[in-house]
Amino acid sequence: MNESALQPIWDWMVERIGVGFFEFPLYFLPVVVAVVLVTGVFFSVLDVAVYRKIPARTAWLDGLRVMSTYIGSAALLLALNAKFHPWTIDVPSAAPTLVTFGAQVALLMVIGEFLTYWWHRLEHGNRFVFKYVHYLHHRVESPLTIWTNFVVHPVEGLMVMLCLYVPPLVLGVHPLVMVAYAIANTTAMVITHCGYDIRFYPGWLLPPNVAHELHHSNKRPTNLSVVMSFGDKLFGTYKAPTRSDRPAAKWKAPITSG
Question: Is the distance from CB of 129 to CB of 221 less than 8 angstroms?
């Protein structure tokens, strides 16, 4: 039998977590919450203890607000599913091949970038949507912090989740693919808003913070991409940050881009 190299990982996940967990179509939500928690703690330590970018109280309150919303929403949906089972999906016993796994994660990232880009562009192109939905996200001033990504109107949060996760659910991708995709897109969006220009970060592929800082500081419809970098470059909304475009740093963290 030509067993996938990913089979031991998938067998371990099914054994430890259980088939019932993956039958729930929104099983990816705890993965998103875990990424938000880990990256939130990491960058908050940099913000507070290393670069003294924001007060500890601010980081604590912002983190508590975001995590209580995410954890509460995920817990509620999981509890409702456990009681009512409105929708279940078939859980495969075999893991995908490495080629299938990599190709599908890449495809989902491209689809997610395309859909979130055009939703973000609509938010800036339609005065009603910007005034009543997207305005909340742009109340955050540059320089950004790790929690900026989560300062959104509920409608915006729902639309982004739909853009990201309806396609893989419709396509019926393997749970391993979905988990990897959830980790990848959530991490990319967090780093886009993290407030640090990270050395060696693949800005040619994923949207770097320094470009999105310009989007927030100028509040113009440029640098709209938050999952990958191609949306802006393909559809004409990319603006390369210059030294004068960079917002004045309000902390001691150096610009570290190479």
Answer: no
The length of the chain is: 258
29 Cβ neighbours under 8 A, 6+ residues apart:
73, 74, 77, 78
| Average pLDDT estimate for 47-57 | 90
CA 66-71-76 angle, to 5 degrees, is 130
Can you read off the two tokens belonging to residue 12? 């371990």
Round to whole Å and give the CA distance between 130 and 127: 5
Residue 47 near residue 77, CB atoms below 8 Å: no
- Report the range of poorest mean pLDDT among 178-182, 222-226, 252-256: 252-256
The pair of structure tokens assigned to 85 is 């089972």
SS3 107: helix
Region 188-196 average pLDDT: 92
- Maximum distance among all alpha carbons in the chain? 60
Band (pLDDT 50/70/90 cuts) for residue 249 is: very low
DSSP-derived secondary structure for 25-40:
TTTTHHHHHHHHHHHH
- 156-161-163-164 Cα dihedral, nearest 10 degrees: 140
pTM of the full predicted structure?
0.90
- Please tell me what DSSP assigns to residue 50: I
Handedness of CA 61, 65, 66, 68 (dihedral sign): positive
What does DSSP assign to residue 146?
Answer: T
- DSSP letter at 137 equals G
Residues with Cβ within 8 Å of residue 22, at least 6 apart in sequence: 14, 89, 91, 175
Q: Which ranges constitute the DSSP H helices of 126-208?
A: 127-132, 154-171, 175-192
Pair 186, 194: CB distance under 8 Å:
no
